[in-house]
Amino acid sequence: MGIRGLTRYIRSHSEFFQDVSLCNCKLLIDGDNLYHNLYFSSGLDIAHGGDYARFADIVREFFAALRVCRVAPFVVFDGICDKDNKKLATLKQRTQERIIQAQSLSFGGSGSILPIVADEVFIQTIMSLRVPMAQAEVEADSELAALAKQWGCPVLTQDSDFFIFNIPGGVCAFSDLPWHTLSVKASSGQRYIATKLFFQCHLYCQFSLKTPRLLAILAVVLGNDYVDSMVMQPFMSAITQTVKRGPVARPLQIEILFRWLSRFNDERDALHAAMKYVDVSRCKVQEQKLLDIVQEYISPESTLDSFFSTGYFPLRKGYFVSAQAKGACPPCHDPRQPLNPGAKCSEIPEWIGEGLKAGLLPPFVCEAFKLRQIILSTQVECVHLQSSHLCSRNIRYAIYSLLLGGPATSLRPKSRHHRSSGKWCLVEIDRRGKGLLHTQVRPEDSALFAQDIPELHRLPEIQVDSRYHLLLTIMGCSAEDLADVPTDLQLPIAATRHWLIHAVAPKPRPLHLHALLLGFVYGKLTASISAGPVSQAEAPGTGRDLKICIVKALMNLAKSKVLARPQEVTSHVCNQWFSCLVMASHLNKILGYPLQDPPLERLYCGPLVHGLSRALSSPSVSPESLLASSSGTLALYLALQQATTKGPTASVAKVGSKKKKRKSKTRAARNDVKDELDAECGWVSALVLK
């Protein structure tokens, strides 16, 4: 949520804040807000798909600073974005704005598009640090406000809604937290972060408000994500014109509203008085609905206090590991197969609820299950190209079938008469050009495999091997394809195989695959280097020293080739790969992690992959020449390359086929690039048919 103009007004009044030394306390953190601010404030790559290793390092540094100051962080993430579709219009508008920003970034301009797996990298990183975290059922605001009131601790957020919530411990804006610079108390030697906190009491005392509950009226009058500011515009015009005729700047509007609120004893009287200026029949807004929104600010509720008090730290080895701690699993039970799914088919299963609350499952799962509506994420790509999410459509449709139930239909139905009529319908919202495309998805659209789709509540009862086979079937690969791949790269390789088969134009070229796989190798090398030398007696030029040389050579080559403006085709094919990876990751989580969760921070570095793609366009540069100095590293690369291209697949064999048509010279010139890309895609089928 957010209230337009309120942050600027509050921050212009220093009397609302108090200087504090942040140490020896609990700190509730708005998780979504934090990872956005950490990423964008660190100057990390956006245009080329993200720099996740550097981002993970920054996250570790941030929580290390809190630990040194003896600040105990508790992170809460948003759940489903819109429980009752009350803010659907707001979400669509923001998606539209992100599409325009993505277009600007694709041309080398400015924009703030969070790279697609930055949120998951953040979660993986804080889980490795054993930072307590939870995911709210809906937005995290109410959960954080209620917990802060119970615990008496501050909240770290940049959300203006927290100026309205009554938080006795204060509100700390990320921009006011100089976590890079720690201070030391002379008396005790205790390190702390010198910051300032907003206290609501200073605000309502300033305007002599009879109760802090009146502040909640600001949210519905000024407008938030649930209430359009135009609804109360007649009222705002009426009270501002008594002070100044003509247009009134937002800060003055807010001040006038504060002084108007000082007349009333409670929020009900104030809202009733304001609604007299509003044409309810035209605006279709009822006073009671607005009052309900006001009450959400006044009396927030939390279900997470008991969750955090258990000291539960989720581990990604199954749907939820807490079952063993609760005594639900006998000692001989495989922890990757949780017991007691405990829910009817028509309700969300208990294991999904536990997984969502622990952050093991993404909000995508709940949005599909409850809202039947998915807004696909925006990536940096040219708007005249097809959406990169078309590439992962088959995986998404399989996920919907698992979550909502679907027919056991064949991979390629013979006719429409063989397609079952579905009982559910889900709406996907994706980019088409600069606009939004709404697509209805039904069970018959998810005909991906010729076997029964297991019921959702029965998934925990299925053996790991069966879930593993189901995952590979949906991804279109076999266990044999992944046999020589390191376990932490098996899911990314399965996603890469799916990407090669289902990519839409412009399709990937050999250099794009080589660059991605070199990125995987680069990540493995940097992980090995970070772990330290295997032996102190390693000879110079071998082992760790050699890995460091290769890593430096790859990055230096990439830096010399990468451009500020991302290459159009490279961006689009990488975005398609990301879409497949994200959906494969979602599927893996729903199936209880039959494949190891990959370390996302080590998989992709945007400037590296884009730079290597340009470098590999030269005939003198090849993966073999770049890795020739290390036989072990080269062997890893070749194993990954073979795993992505082996196995006869009919879909791959068709890639790159060209229809013989007569073209005018103008049309031929216009399609030169596209034809070259399509022709080069024949390399996939050539490798497969060898």
Describe the structure.
With 690 residues, the protein is α/β, with parallel strands linked by helices. It folds into 3 domains: 6-298, 3-Layer(aba) Sandwich (Rossmann fold), CATH 3.40.50.1010; 381-412 and 421-647, no CATH class; 652-690, no CATH class. Helices cover 46% and strands 8% of the residues. The strands form 3 sheets. Strands 4-3-2-5-6 form a 5-stranded parallel sheet, sandwiched between helices. Helix 18 packs parallel to helix 23 (568-590), helix 21 crosses helix 26 (631-645) and helix 22 (544-561) crosses helix 24. Residues 315-346, 407-422 and 648-690 have low confidence and may be disordered.
Topology:
Blueprint: H1 6-11, E1 17-22, E2 25-30, H2 31-41, H3 52-68, E3 71-77, H4 88-106, H5 118-128, E4 133-135, H6 141-151, E5 155-156, E6 171-172, E7 183-184, E8 191-198, H7 200-206, H8 217-222, H9 233-241, H10 250-261, H11 267-275, H12 280-283, H13 287-298, H14 305-309, H15 322-325, H16 350-357, H17 363-371, E9 373-375, H18 393-404, E10 426-432, E11 435-441, H19 464-475, H20 490-502, H21 510-530, H22 544-561, H23 568-590, H24 606-615, H25 623-627, H26 631-645, H27 650-654, H28 665-670, H29 672-680, H30 682-689
Parallel strand pairs: 2-3, 2-5, 3-4, 5-6, 9-10
Antiparallel strand pairs: 1-8, 7-8, 10-11
Keywords:
690 residues; three-stranded antiparallel sheet; Rossmann fold; disordered C terminus; five-stranded parallel sheet; alpha/beta; 3 domains; 46% helix
